[in-house]
Amino acid sequence: QVQLVESGGGLVQAGGSLRLSCSQSRRTFSTFAMGWFRQAPGKEREFVAAIRWSGGSTEYADSVKGRFTISRDDAKNTVYLQMNNLKPEDTAVYYCTAQIGTTRSYNYWGQGTQVTVSS
After folding, report:
1. Which end of the chain has a smaller Cβ tally under 10 Å, C or N?
2. Strands 58-60 and 78-83
3. DSSP 78-118
4. pLDDT for 56-70, tens place per residue?
5. Do 115 and 83 form a contact (C-beta atoms < 8 A)?
């Protein structure tokens, strides 16, 4: 069983930056994609960004385009989310997720890391 371990959340002022990291607990050779979702209090979980493991193509929610960058380090089995120009509305619990195996749905999830942006 693969576990996703997140780190990098915290408290930052508006306009600041944070970088989230998510590592797989063991190397897998069947990762199709990894991504990030977030959930703010009282709201549904929403898609933030994703990256294909082979080729590195990326996808972003409109709300974060131009501010967030997703990247991966294949050697470290790690995906990153660089968040710049943070806004109070970015405050949420951020969840790392992965599509591993033959499924094309996100079948592995991290425990979540809190990101709080103060105004």
Report:
1. N
2. unpaired
3. EEEEEE-S--GGG-EEEEEEEEESS-SS--EE---EEEEEE
4. 999 999 999 999 999
5. yes
